[in-house]
Amino acid sequence: MLFAALLVPAGFAGWAVGHYTSLDKSASTVVHTVTIGTATSTPATTTSPATTTSAATTTTSTSTPAGGGNAAAGKAVFAANGCGSCHTFKPANATGAVGPDLDSAPAADAKADHNMNLADFINESIVKPDAYIAKGYNKGIMPSTFGSSLSKTQLNDLVAFILSGTAKS
Q1: In order of start, what are the domains of the chain with their CATH numbers?
Q2: What is the CA radius of gyration of the chain?
Q3: pTM (2 decimals)?
Q4: Which of 38, 47, 100, 157 could form a disulfide with 74 if both were Cys (CB 3.0 to 4.6 A apart)?
Q5: CB–CB of 96/85 below 8 Å?
Q6: Collapsing DSSP states into helix, strand and coil, what is residue 31?
Q7: CA dist 147 → 24, 49, 76 (Å)
């Protein structure tokens, strides 16, 4: 009962202050903030009607190293670093035959390498190419400099590109 007795005067005070501060102004240019339960009313002036927007965002991520990458940007990294001269990879129109076929080999090799996560396997194969050698290939063929010559972003983009086009068998 006491709450209701205090609520009415506080509401009236907020209404009175709001109307007093809006004299000689269009109703669409004044925003009133009234907090019920205290004796505070804060008027704020704006040049346009107040608008409230709300959006929900859902983010889905894969387990690509360091938070994922941009596959489209990864295609450019693939081309700029000559990956297609050694690897076959349909999404890049690459037909190299020196290294493993990236359309299918990464998934099979990741399973053979202690059932490693595919994105992690692709990352490791670029950064430490001799950590796992695919059947039928020799150590030391792939350059081991990509871990230092590519930025973290370039590396993540390249992994995302290869991951987006390789068979997930």
Answers
A1: 2-45 (no CATH), 65-165 (1.10.760.10)
A2: 31
A3: 0.61
A4: 157
A5: yes
A6: strand
A7: 67, 53, 17
Cα dist from 28 to 32, 33, 51, 53, 73, whole Å: 11, 14, 11, 18, 46
Query: Residue 160 is encoded by which pair of tokens?
Result: 């995302």
Tokens of 14: 């907020």
Q: Which residues of 80-113 are buried (b: 16+ CB within 10 A; e: fewer)?
A: ebebbebbbbebbebebeebbbbbebbbbbbeeb
Type of residue at 131 = A
Q: How many angstroms separate the CA atoms of 88 and 36, rounded?
A: 68
Give how far Cα 151 sits from Cα of 99, 154, 155, Å: 23, 5, 6
